[in-house]
Amino acid sequence: MSVLVSRVSALLYPLLGACFWASVAGYKPVIIVHGLFDSSEDFKNLKMFINQSHPGTNVTVIDLFDRSASLEPMWKQVEGFKAAIYPIMQNAADGVHFICYSQGGLVCRGILSTLSEHNVNSFISLSSPQAGQYGDTDYLKYLFPQFVKSNLYHLCYTGVGQRISICNYWNDPHHRDLYVNSSDYLALLNSERANPNATEWKKNFLKIKKLVLIGGPDDGVITPWQSSQFGFYDNNETVIEMQEQDLFLRDVFGLKTLAARGDLIICSVPGVQHVFWHSNETVFHTCMEKWLE
């Protein structure tokens, strides 16, 4: 009897192992890019959620530009993250997924726009100021105690200011011309200023399979919160939703194309404060889980 059991086990265990490997091998690697003042240590819960839902998934939180280093200029961060991420892409024949939190969502847009050979399937933008930032938040008071939102443009729209990450996407709706002419990052990504690379960047960006935009009204940091879904203020500080924004209507980098393809997903969750998006299990199951296959 024991010989029979041994023989059955010898046949069965490799078969079970093969089935298990087949089930996990289908999960694409997940790359997480953190936000302002974060580090890789802050994403333990999100990694756990992914591994519980999709066992065996290779999850990498890129450990670069942590804490105060996250204030480095955005293009510098794009190049640094790109260099760290590219080898992961090269080793992923079926592609990878991006989860990019807060400022990291804008870093990821820079990577997706400028890296022609990327193989990102789902780009999950987790409470990221995609249309810019304009608010008197605790972050602003901490970083620039002598400024409020109405006068920060005096610093941000200068050569010195543009060496600080937050100024690269500071979008003052009352000083639109200054923003368009001074922003070295967001105005170029959004083709709000003439960009000779706009056609190529759009082509690169549209290689993604899904764009998932996550945000909510109780965020408390991203201002307006609709910026996480490409809505933003007009000059009266009335929020204009994404579908009415010029960058959508003119399809300057591909939002309208993604929507027409059915590949633009909007996920709004109330009751979540900014620092808890990546540790909230409901947010993961509601807005992220299904896009990480």
Name of the CATH homologous superfamily of the domain at 30-140 and 202-291 = Alpha/Beta hydrolase fold, catalytic domain
Structural class category: alpha/beta
**Which parts are unreliable, with pLDDT below 50 for 5 consecutive residues or more?**
1-24
CATH topology of the domain at 30-140 and 202-291: Rossmann fold
**CA distance, first residue to last residue:** 42 Å
What does the main sheet amount to? Answer: 6 strands, parallel
Estimated helix fraction: 25-40%
Taken as a percent bin, the fraction of beta residues is 5-15%
What is the H-and-E element order? HEHEHEHEHHHHHHEEEHHEH
User: Could you tell me the radius of gyration in angstroms?
Assistant: 21 Å
- CATH top level assignment of the domain at 30-140 and 202-291: Alpha Beta
Shape: globular
CATH architectural group of the domain at 30-140 and 202-291: 3-Layer(aba) Sandwich
Number of strands: 8
Q: What order do the strands of the largest sheet run in, or round the barrel if closed?
A: 2-1-3-4-5-8
**Average pLDDT over all residues:** 92
Number of helices: 13
